Every structure is written in structure tokens, then in C-alpha cells.
Amino acid sequence: MQNPTPTIDPIILAALQGVRTIGELQEVWLAFASDLQGYTYLFACDEKSGRMHWPARQDFEGKAYLRSPFGRNSLFFVSNEILYRLANYQEVYIPVNYSIGFDSNVASYLRQLIFGKNQGDVTLKFRKVLADFCLRRFNWDTLPYLLENAHMLKEGKNLSEIWETILAEFLFSELNQEIFAKSQRIEFLDSDQATAIARAQDQLQHFDRALKAGLHDQVESQVNIFELIVLKIALLKRRSPSTSQAARNTADLVEWMDSVLGAIVGVPLWAGVQYFLKSGAFKPLSKLGSSGERAYCCSRNLAWDIYHVYSRQQQCMTGSNGEIIVPYMLTYDKGLADLFDGFPYVGCLVHVEYDFPLFINDPNILNAINAYFPENKRITNMTDQYFNPEAMQRRRSRNHVFSPSDCARLLIEYKSTMAS
Fold first, then answer.
1. Are 63 and 330 in contact (CB under 8 A)?
2. Cα(71)–Cα(331) distance, rounded to whole angstroms?
3. For the whole model, what pTM was predicted?
4. Beta-carbon-side half-sphere exposure of residue 195 (alpha carbons within 13 Å)
5. Nearest Cα to 339, choosing from 279, 414, 284?
6. CA 71 from chain center: how many Å?
7. Using CA atoms, how far apart are residues 248 and 215, in angstroms rounded to an integer?
8. Hey, which residues does 324 pair with through a beta bridge?
9. Among 264, 259, 228, which residue's Cα sits nearest to residue 398?
């Protein structure tokens, strides 16, 4: 049985959100130490603190990007036990692990790398990327890739390609990591490779069972909502393409989210505001075109980008052995990398007794909108009306809950409008 997300005093959350340096974090933590007993805080910063440093993001040669839910370069860990040991000059052990998700684009390079197909300049750069990040062991997470291709599995399409991708992942884990890190030469530790094949088969069978148990419908429902938001952003931009109309479009988007979805969805809202302000120069939504005219053909891909950001956030948790798992996404898509960077988390509270972490945003979406449109009367009225506890409670308790059938109906309507 899953334990819910913990409840923390809003005063503590506000104090943590205001932290900008490791020194400030230690002061805040000590002030609330009794309330934070049992918690560990992952703090995103650009400082490096020796062995306490853990990478939060990295750019590689060959235009590959490794991203986590945290929008700065490093992670610093703090807990009551860590501070006690530091104060007493004792060795600090931080149980931390990681997983690396990847999309279909990276999957194609991974297949080429392992099976030697079409070895070109990009694949050689991919070798260098993996060698640069070659830690003790690659903890690949195939879930983002498998979810992207779940409809293919369900329809029996591209099965050989999907199988080769999963097998390549497990074969890569059998590489001699030391040799690969030094020379990028493929040399397997287990020449038999039977273990990798068995593990790949087991993973695909497990994922197939999960799809049949309802995972496919659950994910499709979430991606459909994100696609609907992308289409709404495009429609607003097509109606009012000038950047001088950004405040109007932003207010209309928030009001639509409130009245139609019954939720203010942070990441696509932030992306929409940036797109209204910068048009096609905003990389994560540049595929829409400067006035949203290309939304019909790319809205699904953009919806998956948003889903990847949220799904990676959900993978930040404590593992079965009590270790803190930092989830990454490896991609060659600069727009997706910028989406991770744009509305990041400043920190994350985890607790071994809870299944889900508690994230702290930076910047707060309300503060960001007000900063983009200072002294704009409509924006001020909009934020006062929709960003308060009463509005949140009203959205939670409204009679009609936005359903998958509502979403399907609006998707057809919006796509028809875009095509006209």
C-alpha cells in the first residue's frame, strides 16, 4: 500500500524556496530541524562542495543533453544526520543512485552503437557522450522509451526495433565499463550474453502485463491532456500572434485551464507564456511555428515532451534499499532539454516512509507571470482570481470532473479548427 505525499508546514516550504546558497540552506534546516526529522533535502545549486556534489545536469559534445528535474548544475544533500556528522568531522555516507531515461532518438543511437548498424559521425559522438558519463554502472531506465512506443506494442508494430532497443540496453550493462570509458571500445564482460537476453525478455513481458492492466490508457489520458493544452496555446497564438498580445493570451490560457480542465498545469503554462512572449524563438515550442500554424502536425510530439518532464519528476524517490534515486533524461532534442531547464525544481524533500517526494518550484509560476507582465491590470486580476487557496478548493470540489471523453471531444474540435 502506498503512503501519501508528506504534509509540510507552508512556512518551512517558503523558507526552503527562498534558499539560494548552501550556507542559507544549512541555516534554514537547523531552524526547522525538529520538523524535518527523517527527511533528506536535495538542493539544486551551482556551487560544488567536494564529495557532497552530485551532477544535476550536463551538456555533452555532439549536442547531447542530460537533464534531471533540477534546473541547476549540482545537487547538495542535507539531513539532520548529515549535518550532525559534518559538525563532528565524521564520514558522511549519502545513499544515492540514479536512472537514465531516454527517448526514441537516443534509442536509435544505442541500437547502432551495440549492433554496429550505420556507424556514422553521430554514433561516434554518442560513444563519447556515454564514455564521458561512464560511472560505475549505467542504470538505464527504458520506461520513457517504452511508453513512447506503447501504442506500437499494442498494435504489434515495430516489434523488432523495440526488442533491439531493450536488448541493447541490457547488453550495454554487460560492457567492460573501464575499457569503454578509456577507448570507447565495445567489449562485453559476458561473452555468452544470455543473461542480457533473458533480462530483456523479462522486462518486455512485465511491461506488456502493465499495459494490459491499464498503464497504456492511463498514460494516453495524460498525454492527451498535454496535447490539448498545446493545441489551445497554438490556437490562442494564431488568434493573437503579436508578442504585444502575450498578456492577453496568458490570461486567456489560465482562464481556460481553470474553467475547462479544472487545474492550473504548471509546465505547459510556463511554456505557453514563453511562447506568447518569444514566438518561434522559444525552442521547446518552436515546432509550432511563429503563430502556431504547424500545431496540427507536431502537437503530439510536444505533448510527449511535457509528459517526459513530469514522468522524470515522479521517478525521484527513495528506492527499495533506502537510497535516493535521481532520475535523468538523455536526449538530443534541445527543445526538450530547455523544457526541463525552464520551469525546474529548486529542491526536493524525500522520506523513506513516503512513496512520493515533495518538490519545490523555482520560480513560482505566479511570481514568474507577475514578473513578465508588471502592472498589467488584467494579469493582476487574473492572478488574484485563479491563484489563491479558494480557487484551488473550488477546482477540487467542482461537480464536473474533466474526463477522457471530454478531452477526446475537444481534441477533435481543436484539430479541426487548426486544419481549417
1. no
2. 16
3. 0.88
4. 11
5. 284
6. 11
7. 38
8. 96, 318
9. 259
Contacts 24+ apart (CB under 8 A), 26-32: 26/78, 26/83, 29/78, 29/80, 29/83, 30/83
Cβ atoms of 44 and 347 within 8 Å: the answer is yes
> In this structure, what are the phi and psi dihedrals at residue 359, rounded to the nearest 5 degrees?
-95, 150
Q: Who contacts 181 (Cβ-Cβ below 8 Å, separation ≥6)?
A: 131, 134
Mean pLDDT computed over 202-211: 94
- For β-strands 64-67 and 74-78, DSSP reports them as unpaired
Q: Are 2 and 355 in contact (CB under 8 A)?
A: yes
Cell of 375: 502592472
Residue type, 375: E
190 confidence band (pLDDT: 50, 70, 90)? low
- The sign of the dihedral angle between the CA atoms of 203, 208, 212, 214 is positive
Per-residue pLDDT tens digits for 359-414: 887 657 888 898 999 989 999 999 999 998 899 889 988 878 899 999 999 999 99
Tell me the average pLDDT of the chain.
86
Residue 45, Cβ density class (10 Å: 0-12 exposed, 13-18 middle, ≥19 buried): buried
